[in-house]
Amino acid sequence: MTSTGRGEVAMAAQQVRKNVILVWIISYMAVLIVPLLFSVFFYIGTQRTLEAQIRKANDLLLNEIQLVIDMQVADAKRLATEIMWNDKVQDLIYSNKYERNDYRYDLYAIMQDLNQYATAYSSVAGFYLYWQQGKMVVRPDVYKSIGLSYEDLYAGSSISQTRWEQLLQSKQLQQFVAVTGLGYGGDEAQLLYIHSFPPSGDEEASTSIAVSMRADALLEMIGKIEQFNNGDVLLLNENGEVLLSLGQSDGGTIALPPGLTVDRGSFRGTFLGKSSQFSYIKSASSKLTYLTIVPENVMWEEAVNVRNLIYMDVSLSLLGGLLLTLYLVRRNYRPVRQLVFEKQRIQDKMQRQTTQLRSNFISRLLKGRIDTSTSIEDSLQAFQMELASERFGVLLIYLNKNEPFMQRIDDIDMQDRWKFLQFIVSNVVEEVVNRVNRGYVAEVDDMLACLVNLPESGDPSAAMQSLREAAEEVRTFLKREFKVELIISIGGIKSTLAEIPLAYSEALDAMEYKLIIDDDDIIVYEDLHGSAASPNPGGYYYPIQIEQKLINHVKVGETKQALDVIDSIMEKNFGEHTLTVPIARCLMFELVSTLMKTMNEIEEIEEAFEVRYPRALQNILACETVADIRRIISEVVEDLCQFTAMQYKTIRQRKNDNEHRKLIANVQQHIQSNYRDYDLNVTKLGDTFGLKATYLSKLFRDITGVGLLDYINVTRLEQVKKLLTDDKKPLQEVAEQCGFQDLNTFIRIFKKHEGLTPGKYKGLHSND
């Protein structure tokens, strides 16, 4: 059975296992789902009931807010109505006393009545009458002009005088206005109710009554409602402007959704960046609207808690049911699994034995060692090897370079790596060959052999071409996908079973030739037979002259020339003719012997060949290809050439250093003798010694560590300091005697090196 058959058996067993487990899981889950469905229905009903109860409670609380505020507004309106229908007020407004200037007593009488109203309506913060004709504001205790009254009542507040006058003179019968910034600290607020008198005649402005209600008192009443501790309560006028707010609102305008003409309702929206529930109710006695805004997480807190409990219950039930289901499935499936595994184990064992027996049969068939007690046909049938014809071919596969593949699977043992690699190569070879022919792979003497059964009809050259193409495809695929390189040889096409060993022998001969020349192309025995590249019966080429030439190149460190000699030796021995592996090894040992002689002639190398290159001999003995021989010999030659070249360079460098130091000593002596010369400089020194000035300067600095010009100046300055001890000699004379023609240049150089002028140096020295 092939690897494909083994895969089909494993897949079938796996499918049976999945089907059994799936049926049991569905059965157990069906029992679990029924109570879960009841829990879902219970949650839906509970959620709806809770939402209805929450909305009902919210409506009741909103009604309570409406009742509290409407009572205060009703008191304000009742007070305004009583003042409006006061006889004295009516007489003042709808008469011409202002023109006659006899209204003083009337204002006093009205003040007395207003004082009585203040006592009766103690719940209001204050009230006053605005008389349009006289531009007067009448309060219970005083009457003043409108300007002075603004200063008393609203100076520094949120309402300007112009706005206040517009409200008082407006013909709109009822208005509500919020006024903030009152009191000493500016932290008081009032709700101002303005009630205008019906205008008489063509008056452009109206007389009004204003009643003030303390905002903090109203908000205190609202704040007692616990539900809105985490929400906002807003009092809106007919334009949607916020008059009073309890919560996080900072005023402004709240737009109700269009089309809401009913007296109460609710809607969802966003407030201060949070999804919130809006509920409103319109005042029964005014144009005010009471609006509550509660974040949905607060509004539906109880509903969310119930939902979370139900979710937790369902999740725990589902988790517990799943765990119980898995436990029961595992426990009940264990006997079935043991039977399946036992059956699969037996099948795998039989398959391995069959594969091993088939591989042994193919190996004996290729080597011509068939047991005559059993017919070949019976063996072929027993191992499921169907033959389409009596035409055969043999592919011999050698696993050559596989280090990258082995490194990718370094977590398993080396023996298992080889088995895994052979398994991959066998499957690929069988799959590729079976597209056109029928192939059967077996392990033979550390190699893989593929017995190919070719079609009955067809040209032999076409059959051989199909084998070439299959071998190339296998080689390319494994190199690209698995980084595995193969050496493949192909024997000739044979027409009977008895000739299979001959095809195998031809493939072996081709493989041996390929291992020697290390050619990367797939080699066919027919291409090798009769070619010029036949074994050389006369031995190998390596005369004494070539050996001495190689020794000379190595001794002087000429790497390229030495490697060229090695290449010419290899070309002579493996170009037109090829050597057998034993003869090639003899040549190899001759080359190693040459290198040993060379090392003995190099005095600087003290250790022996086997000490300097401990693994070279082992690697040479393990060589199987010409490329391996060339690589190892070239590595040793290259190392020796590098060593000798370095030694030669060191000797030459020492010689050059001695010459350079002698030259620099002469330059220094010349400077000591000629420092008085005005023209002594780097250029003149270069001309004197026949060198370029730049080269001489660099060489001088490299050896002495001092610049050449600096050395000249330092030499002159040493003589200068000796002459400065004589007080009688002027500086100009001292400078000229020491080679300084210009006095300023002398002073500058002296100060640069000594840190002070020559005069100061001379004075200090004299003091000493």
TrEMBL record:
UniProt keyword list: DNA-binding, Membrane, Transcription, Transcription regulation, Transmembrane, Transmembrane helix
UniProt cross-references to Gene3D superfamilies, sorted A to Z: Homeodomain-like
GO terms of molecular function: DNA-binding transcription factor activity; sequence-specific DNA binding
Ranges of residues in domain HTH araC/xylS-type: 661-764
Transmembrane segments: 21-44
Protein name: Helix-turn-helix domain-containing protein
Organism encoding this protein: Cohnella fermenti
